[in-house]
Amino acid sequence: MALNKPFGVLSQFSDADGRQTLKDYVPVAGxxxxxxxxxxxxxxxxxxxxxxLQARIADPVHKLAKTYWVxxxxxxxxxxxxxxxxxxxxxxxxxxxxxxxRLAEPQLWPRDPPxxxxxxIPTCWLAxxxxxxxxxxxxxxxAAVGLPTLRLVRVRIGEWGLDGLAPGQWRELPPRR
Length: 177
What we know:
The protein is α+β, with helices and mostly antiparallel strands. Helices cover 14% and strands 29% of the residues. Strands 1, 2, 3, 4, 7, 8, 9, 10 and 11 form a 9-stranded mixed sheet that branches. Strands 5-6 form a two-stranded antiparallel sheet. The chain is globular, with a radius of gyration of 16 Å.
């Protein structure tokens, strides 16, 4: 199934600290997230009870592309965009190359709480597609080139897209052939 994970929700079904989890949105037993999406990120999260499919989605060895729409602070230079696409070096080593494109501001749902707005500092939207999935990787990559992430929305994982799901909504996916 595909879920549009809202901002502030953990990508797990329980939490000892009482924070919002997938259980607050998905009333289906026996499914698990295929991969992760941190609490501060929004968008597409796939849930499945198929262990082989979960491994195919989550394991970077399969190189399944994941696409994010990322609002960054600043107006990226050509050099910054090239550094992002080449794969910046992070503390845990170099990242693989990525596809990076400027994006017109997408029509998204309002975020709660809203992204901070500062009149003197411009923002820009980027579409970033990766074929690996390190912890908070997109945020660390944009920070490494001097473009802090303000908002991050995953819109696609391989063949599956967000396709009009509102935050907190989910839908069954057709069986794979």
